[in-house]
Design goal:
The complex is a heterodimer of chains A (about 300) and B (about 300). By secondary structure, chain A is of the alpha+beta class. Helices cover about 25% and strands about 30% of the residues of chain A. Chain B has two domains: about 1-40, no CATH class; about 70-305, Pectate Lyase C-like, CATH 2.160.20. Chain B has six helices and eleven strands. Classes of the chains: A alpha+beta (about 300), B alpha/beta (about 300).
C-alpha cells in the first residue's frame, strides 16, 4: 500500500513544493518508508539540472572511510562531466550523498549519463531542463526540509510515499523513477506488477538499464521505451493497460504534461479533482483536502481509464 | 450413540473414566464441556450473541444502545481531531441523549461514524474518506459531500444518503438498510452484498455485484464490465447501458412488482428518472454456479 499524488496548475506557476509536501504528509499512513517528489519548475533553456546520489543513506554508517569514498566518487563524477564537455554552473549538496548540479551541455546526454553511472554507487536520479527529482528515506516533512523543497515554485509535480513490499527500503527503490534517458520524464506507481521479470528481461534485451529490483521501475523503463519508439504519453499509458499485468495505478509527468493510468481491475485507488485552474489527484481524498479546504467535487477514475492533462 | 456407548463398555473402555454416572449427571452441559477443554474462550460484551424474542420490545435494541432524542441537536467539529476521537465524541454525545449530530469539517477523514448501533440522525457536512459509516445498525446518515472506498461496508440497518460521488467497494458485504449515492460510484459496488438496498444515481464501475448473495442494487446510469459476476442470488436493476455481464449473471423480466418497487424507492430518494422505470434492465443469478464444486469437470467447462 503506497500513496501517490499529483498536481498540475494550468498555465501558471504556484507553490508546488509546499503543496506536494502537504499532500504527501496527508498520505504518510500509506507508507512511511521513503518519500519522493518530481516537481517541475520553469524550463531552463540550455541548462540541465542533474540530481544524483553517490551512496545510499545506510552506507553512511557502514565504514570509517565512507566520507573519503564519497568525495572520491564526486570527484570522479565531475571529471567525467568535464570529459563530456559539460560545464558545471552550480553545485549543491542537500545531504552528503545526494548532489544537484546545473550543467551546460550540448552533446549526447544519454552517453554522458551512462558514463557517470559507471562510477561506483552512483545513480542519476533525474536529468532535465525542468525536472527536480528528490527522494530519500523518511516522511514528506523530513525529505522536504532536508532538500529545501518547500520554497519550490513550479507548474506541476508528482509524489509518492512508499511502503516497501517487494524490495528494500533504500533510495534506489524509492519513487519517483526517472524514465532514463528521457529528460524530464518521471513515474510514480501504486500496486504490484506481476509480469515484472518477463517485461524486465525484454527491456534489458533492448538495452535499458535497471538500477533496482523494484517492480515500479519497470513502468519508467517501459514509458522510456515507448517514447523512444515515437509514442506519445497517451499512447504509452494506453498500451500499458494491455501489456503490464497486475494491479496498478500510476502517474507519469513530463515537462508539460501529467498522465494517469488505472489497470483493468481498478484495484488501486485514485481520487481526482479537476477545475479550470488546477487538477489534483491522490490515492486518498484526504491528500487533496490538505491543499483545498473548501468543498469540492471529486471522482474516482474507472478501470482501464487513462487521462493526460497539459500544464 | 447408544449402541456406540454399549460397544465401548463391552470393550472395557469407559470414555468418562474417573467419574461416576451420578457425578456426570450432576454437572451441567457447560461444566462437562469445560472439562473436555471446550469453551475456553470467554465471550463477553459485544462479541456475546444477543437473542431477540418477539414480544419483548427492549430486545429489539442492543442492551447498550442509548436512548436518544432526535430533537436534541448538536454540532461536532472534526478539525484537528483524529478519527478515534471523533467516533468517541459521537458516542459520548449519544450517551448525553443527543439524537441529531452534525459533523463539521471532516475533510476526507477515514472511518468516520463506524459501528453506530443506535438510532441517530448523523449529518455530515463535507466529505469523508475510507470505510465511512461501516458496520452501522440503525442510524440515518446524510452526507453532503463525497465518500471514499468501502462506505457502508457491513452495514446492517439504517439509511445512508450521499449527495455526491462515492469510491469503490460501495456497500461491500452489506446486510440491510438503504445505502444511496446520488452521484457515481467506483468499482466493485455491492461486492458480497448479503442484503439491503444499494441505490446509485449515476454510473458504477467494473465488477459491481460481484459474488452478491442477497439484496437489491439499483444503478440509474451505466454499469461497467462483469456486472454481477458469480452472483449467487439477489437482483440488480440498471437504467443505462451494461458494458457486459459477468459469469452466471443473466437478464430477467422486469415485472410490475419490480416497477412498483423501483418507483417507490427512487421516488423516496428523489432519484426517479423523468422517463420512468420501464427502461431498467433486471439482472439475476443464472444459478448455474450453484453447487459448482460437485459438478463434473466437463460440466464446469460448460458453465464457464
Amino acid at each position: 500500500m503506497c500513496g501517490i499524488a499529483g498536481l498540475i496548475h494550468r498555465g501558471k506557476s504556484s507553490d508546488v513544493g509546499s503543496e506536494m509536501t502537504s499532500m504527501l504528509t496527508a498520505l504518510k499512513h500509506r507508507g512511511p518508508d521513503s518519500t519522493g517528489f518530481a516537481v517541475y519548475g520553469e524550463p531552463n533553456a540550455g541548462d540541465y539540472v542533474m540530481r544524483l546520489k553517490v551512496a545510499e543513506q545506510e552506507d553512511m554508517a557502514s565504514g570509517y572511510d565512507m566520507k573519503d569514498k564519497i568525495d572520491a566518487r564526486i570527484g570522479e563524477v565531475e571529471k567525467r562531466l568535464a570529459e563530456h564537455k559539460a560545464s558545471i554552473k552550480s553545485k549543491d549538496a542537500a545531504t552528503p550523498y545526494a548532489m544537484r548540479y546545473v550543467i551546460a551541455h550540448d552533446g549526447d546526454t544519454e552517453a554522458m549519463a551512462r558514463y557517470i553511472e559507471d562510477v561506483e554507487g552512483t545513480e542519476i536520479l533525474s536529468l532535465g531542463n525542468a525536472l527536480e527529482l528528490i527522494k530519500d528515506l523518511g516522511d514528506a516533512n523530513v525529505v522536504a526540509d532536508n532538500y529545501g523543497l518547500r520554497d519550490f515554485k513550479g507548474t506541476h509535480g508528482i509524489g509518492h510515499t512508499r511502503m516497501a513490499t517487494e524490495s528494500d527500503v533504500d533510495i534506489r527503490s524509492a519513487h519517483p523513477y526517472w524514465a532514463f534517458p528521457y529528460n524530464d520524464v518521471a513515474v510514480v506507481h501504486n500496486g504490484q506488477i506481476t509480469n515484472y521479470w518477463l517485461k524486465r528481461r525484454q527491456m534489458e534485451q533492448k538495452g535499458h538499464r535497471f538500477m533496482s529490483s523494484c517492480d515500479s521501475e519497470l513502468l519508467a523503463v517501459y514509458t522510456a521505451d515507448n517514447l523512444a519508439n515515437g509514442a506519445t504519453l497517451e499512447d504509452s499509458l494506453r498500451s500499458s493497460i494491455e501489456e503490464i499485468d497486475g494491479v496498478f495505478t500510476y502517474l507519469v509527468a513530463t515537462r508539460d504534461e501529467l498522465g494517469m493510468a488505472k489497470d483493468t481491475m481498478a484495484a488501486k485507488p485514485l481520487v481526482l479533482y479537476e477545475s479550470d485552474d488546477m487538477i489534483a489527484m491522490a490515492s486518498e481524498e484526504v491528500a487533496i483536502r490538505a491543499i483545498l479546504p473548501q468543498e469540492i467535487d471529486t471522482t474516482d477514475p474507472y478501470d482501464e481509464e487513462i487521462r493526460v492533462w497539459k500544464a | 450413540m447408544e449402541s456406540m456407548s454399549v460397544m465401548a463398555e463391552d470393550m472395557g473402555y469407559d470414555p468418562r473414566a474417573g467419574q461416576t454416572r451420578d457425578e456426570i449427571e450432576g454437572t451441567t452441559q457447560e461444566e462437562r464441556a469445560r472439562q473436555l477443554g471446550m469453551m475456553s474462550e470467554q465471550l463477553k460484551n459485544r462479541s456475546m450473541e444477543v437473542f431477540f424474542e418477539v414480544g419483548e420490545d427492549e430486545n429489539y435494541v442492543y442492551p447498550y444502545a442509548q436512548l436518544v432524542d432526535f430533537n436534541k441537536r448538536t454540532e461536532l467539529d472534526c478539525e484537528g481531531k483524529p478519527t478515534t476521537q471523533v467516533n468517541k465524541d459521537i458516542r459520548a454525545l449519544m450517551e448525553e441523549g443527543y439524537g441529531t449530530i452534525v459533523l463539521k469539517n471532516p475533510r476526507g477523514m477515514h472511518s468516520v461514524g463506524v459501528g453506530i448501533l443506535n438510532k441517530l440522525n448523523l449529518i455530515v457536512e463535507g466529505s469523508i474518506g475510507y470505510f465511512g459509516v461501516g458496520l452501522i445498525d440503525g442510524p440515518n446518515v446524510r452526507i453532503s459531500g463525497r465518500v471514499g472506498w468501502s462506505c457502508g461496508e457491513n452495514m446492517m440497518s439504517g439509511t445512508v444518503v450521499i449527495e455526491k460521488n462515492a469510491g469503490s467497494t460501495f456497500g461491500a458485504a452489506m446486510r440491510g438498510g438503504d445505502l444511496v449515492c446520488k452521484g457515481s460510484v467506483g468499482s466493485r459496488t455491492g461486492i458480497d452484498q448479503k442484503g439491503g438496498t444499494i441505490i446509485v444515481g449515476g454510473d458504477t464501475g467494473a465488477f459491481s455485484g460481484f459474488m452478491m448473495q442477497r439484496g437489491r442494487m439499483v444503478v440509474c446510469g451505466n454499469a461497467g464490465k462483469n456486472l454481477g459476476d458469480s452472483m449467487y442470488d439477489g437482483t440488480i436493476y440498471v437504467g443505462g447501458e451494461i458494458r457486459d455481464l459477468g459469469v452466471d449473471a443473466v437478464p430477467a423480466e422486469l415485472t410490475d412488482l419490480d416497477k412498483a418497487w423501483l418507483t417507490r424507492k427512487l421516488t423516496q430518494y428523489d432519484l426517479m428518472p423523468e422517463k420512468g422505470v420501464d427502461h431498467f434492465t433486471k439482472i439475476v443469478a443464472g444459478k448455474q454456479l450453484w453447487n459448482y464444486d460437485n459438478l463434473e469437470p466437463n460440466e464446469k467447462k460448460l458453465i464457464l
